[in-house]
Write a structure and sequence with these properties.
Helix content: 55-70%
Largest sheet: 2 strands, antiparallel
Distance between the termini: 48 Å
Order of helices and strands: HHEHHHHHHHHHHHHEHHHHHHHHH
Radius of gyration: 23 Å
Oligomer: single chain
Shape: globular
């Protein structure tokens, strides 16, 4: 077959690949002016509240806790998220990432709640305390796997084999895989969720075209504008009696006064370690939680790469990912000490917010951590913001998770999309990443338990939880295929984009790595990255 003629000078050319995202207003090391940085930090705080409220609201009632316990767990989760975010941004990956609650840890926590040894407890408060101590013990053991893999450098060796091609399904499904928290959440109260979604698109994408103020005010602060408008509208609906005769479930989702958080929260309270009592340990539950911890580690790796892209940094070196994972292990250990009934991972919605605002500054996220700690201590004020109806958050998630998914797809610019090998790995990994968890989740929804159903609940979780995670399945399939099919062929090396990341596989190969990821206070002398 005859080859295509070479392109003429004036013919259209494909867009050249870019190692760093160019159109970011403030990159990882360049903070905005202080007033702007504080407002942007507060915006990050508002966005992370959704997950911080959703997880305890689902778990605490099952544990036997009431509104008081729920408010205290949310307060504790918020407080610990602030500490963990500061640790991660100063000493971990150094990326502008918020470290918050993780949905991955919900399934093994529910298994602990349903454990037989708590069923004979008649007093709900006592059941809550005993269950909380059980989750604390499991999380203490689970945190070790991330600390060992991270700080020993084992995870660095795994990530070094990652190419742009195998990273695409992992990062994409870290965002797209959370679709169940998007429009299904909006639809729980469509009259407030949909206006939030439409207004945020209008403020961030259309208003900047129409109204010019020299600064992209509407795009950058779109979350604060839209949440304020829709929250006020929801308040008016609530006090006007629009939901007076609505079913209880509708009232919980749509009203601003049904969360029970403001009444349950104390005015001032500082969470402290072992506030629920001494942790209790169960070997099976610890094994299940360790497996979950490993899945959270894989998902966080994808979120780290997405955050580095939206912060306009170069590709994050494997040694820095490994260091970040080690510090995430410490974060889970802190969670277990304080008793949050949940582990920690990167808040995916806040990575999406970096993209929406075009601000990837590390300082902004550190300021948001300050807001988390401040409002966790001032319980009533924190509870006021935490009582924003959840469909408003779901409206925002539709945009934030889409941005993270799109970031994954953007790494295809380094791959040869005309290669059949690329098409197979990409298509098969995406398909299995969606199809396998769909089977596991459907089976669980119908039967009430997963496809693996033995007498040992912890063993069931060790198999069911990994295969219910879309990014984990897709990442595993892509990573395995990409490192086993025709790997010794030089053309294939270029097809998978492996050569693009060569200079970032070692910390010292590119000067920009030091600029973006080196530790503060000259700590690199004592803890050198490789």
């Amino acid at each position: 077959m005859a080859a295509a003629p070479p392109p003429k000078a004036d013919e259209l050319q494909p867009h050249p690949p870019k190692e760093q995202l160019a159109s970011v207003s403030f990159c990882i090391t360049s903070p905005p002016p202080w007033p702007e940085a504080i407002i942007l930090g507060f915006q990050h705080f508002i966005v992370m509240l959704g997950t911080t409220v959703i997880i305890p609201s689902a778990l605490v009632p099952q544990m036997g806790g009431g509104n008081d316990e729920k408010a205290r767990v949310i307060q504790t989760l918020l407080f610990v998220a602030g500490i963990n975010t500061l640790f991660q941004t100063f000493f971990g990956s150094r990326l502008p990432v918020v470290m918050g609650g993780s949905y991955t840890f919900v399934a093994p926590t529910i298994s602990i709640i349903l454990a037989g040894r708590y069923n004979n407890e008649a007093d709900p408060r006592e059941k809550f305390l005993r269950t909380m101590r059980g989750t604390q013990g499991a999380l203490i053991i689970a945190s070790t796997i991330q600390m060992i893999l991270g700080f020993s450098g084992l995870w660095r060796n795994v990530v070094r084999l990652l190419s742009p091609l195998s990273a695409v399904p992992l990062i994409s499904l870290v965002g797209f895989g959370l679709y169940e928290l998007g429009f299904p959440g909006v639809a729980k109260c469509v009259e407030i969720g949909l206006p939030e979604l439409i207004l945020l698109v209008a403020f961030s994408q259309y208003l900047p075209q129409v109204l010019h103020f020299g600064k992209p005010i509407f795009g950058r602060f779109g979350v604060l504008f839209t949440v304020s408008i829709v929250w006020l509208y929801t308040y008016i609906l609530t006090i006007s009696g629009a939901y007076k005769n609505a079913p209880p479930k509708t009232q919980v989702h749509c009203r601003v006064d049904r969360s029970g958080l403001i009444s349950g929260a104390p005015w001032i309270r500082v969470p402290y370690p072992f506030q629920w009592g001494a942790p209790t340990f169960d070997a099976g539950e610890a094994f299940a939680m360790m497996m979950t911890s490993f899945i959270a580690l894989v998902e966080t790796t994808g979120a780290f790469i997405a955050a580095s892209r939206y912060a306009s940094a170069t590709m994050i070196p494997p040694s820095i990912i490994s260091r970040g994972i080690g510090w995430q292990g410490i974060s889970i250990l802190i969670d277990s000490f304080f008793g949050t009934a949940n582990g920690t991972s990167v808040s995916v919605e806040n990575v999406g917010l970096l993209a929406l605002t075009h601000v990837g500054s590390r300082r902004v996220v550190q300021i948001s951590a300050g807001f988390m700690i401040f409002f966790a201590i001032l319980g009533k004020f924190g509870a006021l913001f935490a009582s924003i109806p959840l469909p408003i958050f779901a409206g925002m998630y539709c945009i934030f998770f889409a941005y993270v998914g799109a970031c994954g797809l953007s790494f295809l610019q380094f791959c040869n999309l005309n290669s059949f090998r690329t098409k197979f790995i990409l298509g098969f990994a995406f398909f299995m990443g969606i199809s396998v968890p769909q089977y596991f989740n459907e089976y669980t929804a119908v039967a009430g338990y997963g496809p693996v159903h033995t007498g040992a609940r912890w063993f069931n979780d060790m198999i069911n939880v990994p295969f219910s995670s879309k990014p984990f399945v897709a990442g595993l399939v892509a990573y395995f295929l990409d490192n086993t099919i025709e790997t010794h062929n030089n053309t294939v090396r270029k097809d998978r984009g492996y050569h693009w990341w060569d200079k970032f596989r070692s910390f010292k190969k590119d000067a920009r790595s030091e600029e973006f990821y080196s530790l503060p206070f000259n700590l690199n002398k004592f803890f050198p990255a490789v």
